[in-house]
Specification:
By secondary structure, the chain is mostly helical. It contains 19 helices and two strands. The two termini are 44 Å apart.
C-alpha cells in the first residue's frame, strides 16, 4: 500500500476504530493516542507488507490496544489500576486482523450516546462528535463554532474529564433512558452524515465512509426504536441524499451542481427505500417531524425527471412548513434559494439580505455563495464577484474553491 492509500484507509476506519478503543480503555485521550500510535506503525509496516491486512480496522484496534497497554505500563500514576485495565483490554482479543469483531458494529453507537449524555450542553455534544466521530481537528471544530482553538481545546478537555471523573458509562442506555437522549443522538448522526456528504475541509468533496457509517447508525436506531417517525425521517433523508453520490463530482474531484448532475447515475433502489421510509414517517401519529419534512423535500428532488421539471412550488411550501416547526437561519437560507426558482432571484435576494441584516448567519460559509449565485443570475456581476471572493475566503474545501474560481472566470469573460 502507498502512503496515500494508507492515509485514506485510516480516514475511512479511524472513527469506528477509535470508538472501539474508547470502549476498551475507557479514556478518550488514551484511545486517541493509541490510535495515532497504531497509525504510525501502519505507515511503517504496510508499505513493505506483501499482503496488507484484510481488515484494517481490526488491525488498528489490535495494535492500538497493545500500544495503550504499553502506555499504561509506562505511567506510574496508572500502576494501581494496571491489573484491572490490562485485563479489560486483553479480554477483547477477538479483534483480529483476519476477521471482523461483531462488537465493533455497536461501538460507534455507544460513543455517540456517550457524547450525547444529558450532562453535556448541546454545543459540547456536537463538539465532541465532530472531534471524535468525524475526526475533525480541534482547529476545525473551533472554526465551526466561531471560537478560538485554545478555548475549544479547553472545552473538549473538560468534557472528556467529566466523562472520566463522573463515570459516565460508555454504552447504549436502557430503553426507558433512550428518549431523553434521542434528539441529540439524531442530531449528531446527521452531523456525521453531513461531514460525509460535504467535508468541512480538505481536498475531497465527500467522505463516503462517514456517510455510510451514519446510514448504518440510522438503521441501528430504527431497529432499536422502530416506531419513531423522527428516526425513519432521518434515515430517509440520508438515503435520499446519498443516492446522488455518484453524480456529485467529476472524475477529477470537481463539484457537479444539482442542475448539471446525470440522473441516470442516481441509485434508484436507494431512492425507493428512502421514499418508503419518508411515507412511513409522515404517517406516524402526531405533528410532522423536521427530519421527515426535510426527507420529503429530498424525495421531490430525487423523483423529479429533471432539474427544470422539479416541483419547486411544493418544495417551497415544505420549507415554509419546516420554518414553522423547526425555524433556523440555515433553513431560511435554503428556503430563499428555492424561492428564487419560484418567484425569481430578486425576491430571493431580498429575503437573504433581510436574513443577513439580522445577523442570523454571520460566519456561515455558504451564505456568500448563495448570495453570489443570485447576483450572477441578476446580472450584477461586480457584486457577484465580490460575493464569490468572500465565499472563497470562507471555505477550506478545495472543490468549492475551484467551483468559485470557475464562476469568477465566467464573470470575467
Amino acid at each position: 500500500m502507498t502512503p496515500a492509500e494508507i492515509d485514506k484507509t485510516f480516514r475511512d476506519e479511524a472513527g469506528r476504530a477509535l470508538a472501539t478503543l474508547i470502549r476498551l480503555v475507557g479514556d478518550f485521550d488514551l484511545a486517541e493516542d493509541a490510535l495515532q500510535d497504531a497509525f504510525a506503525v501502519a505507515l511503517e509496516r504496510w508499505p513493505a507488507a506483501a499482503d496488507p491486512p484484510s481488515n484494517p480496522r481490526a488491525w488498528l484496534v489490535n495494535v492500538g490496544r497493545n500500544k495503550a497497554i504499553d502506555r499504561l505500563r509506562r505511567q506510574i500514576a496508572f500502576r494501581s489500576k494496571q491489573g484491572q485495565l490490562t485485563h479489560e483490554l486483553l479480554y477483547d482479543a477477538a479483534a483480529s486482523c483476519e476477521a471482523p469483531d461483531p462488537a465493533l458494529d455497536d461501538d460507534m453507537l455507544r460513543l455517540i450516546f456517550t457524547c450525547c449524555h444529558p450532562a453535556f450542553a448541546t454545543e459540547v455534544q456536537v463538539a465532541l462528535t465532530l472531534r471524535t466521530v468525524c475526526g475533525l481537528t480541534t482547529a476545525q471544530v473551533a472554526r465551526a463554532f466561531l471560537a478560538s482553538e485554545d478555548a475549544m481545546a479547553q472545552r473538549l478537555v473538560r468534557a472528556k474529564q467529566k466523562i472520566r471523573l463522573a463515570g459516565i458509562p460508555y454504552e447504549v442506555p436502557e430503553r426507558e433512558a433512550l428518549g431523553p437522549r434521542l434528539r441529540g443522538v439524531l442530531a449528531v448522526v446527521y452531523l456525521v452524515f453531513t461531514e460525509g456528504y460535504v467535508a468541512t475541509a480538505g481536498e475531497d468533496l465527500m467522505r463516503p465512509s462517514l456517510a455510510r457509517e451514519a446510514i448504518r447508525l440510522g438503521r441501528l436506531l430504527d431497529a432499536l426504536m422502530p416506531q419513531r417517525g423522527e428516526i425513519k425521517g432521518l434515515l430517509a433523508l440520508m438515503l435520499l441524499h446519498d443516492a446522488r453520490r455518484a453524480s456529485r463530482e467529476t472524475a477529477g474531484g470537481d463539484v457537479v451542481l444539482l442542475e448539471e448532475q446525470d440522473r441516470a447515475l442516481w441509485d434508484r433502489e436507494q431512492i425507493a427505500e428512502g421514499v418508503r421510509l419518508v411515507e412511513d414517517a409522515l404517517r406516524m401519529p402526531g405533528p410532522p417531524q423536521s427530519y421527515a419534512v426535510q426527507a420529503a423535500i429530498a424525495a421531490l428532488h430525487a423523483r423529479a425527471p429533471s432539474y427544470r421539471d422539479t416541483d419547486w412550488p411544493q418544495i417551497a411550501g415544505l420549507y415554509e412548513v419546516l420554518l414553522r416547526i423547526s425555524p433556523s437561519p440555515v433553513i431560511e437560507l435554503n428556503h430563499a434559494a428555492v424561492v428564487s426558482m419560484v418567484d425569481g432571484p430578486a425576491r430571493a435576494l431580498d429575503l437573504i439580505d433581510a436574513l443577513q441584516a439580522r445577523g442570523g448567519l454571520d460566519g456561515y460559509e455558504l451564505m456568500p455563495a448563495v448570495r453570489a449565485d443570485l447576483l450572477r443570475r441578476l446580472g450584477r456581476n461586480q457584486a457577484a464577484r465580490e460575493a464569490y471572493l468572500a465565499a472563497t475566503a470562507a471555505t477550506q474545501l478545495e472543490p468549492l474553491r475551484r467551483l468559485y474560481a470557475r464562476r469568477l472566470a465566467e464573470l470575467d469573460r
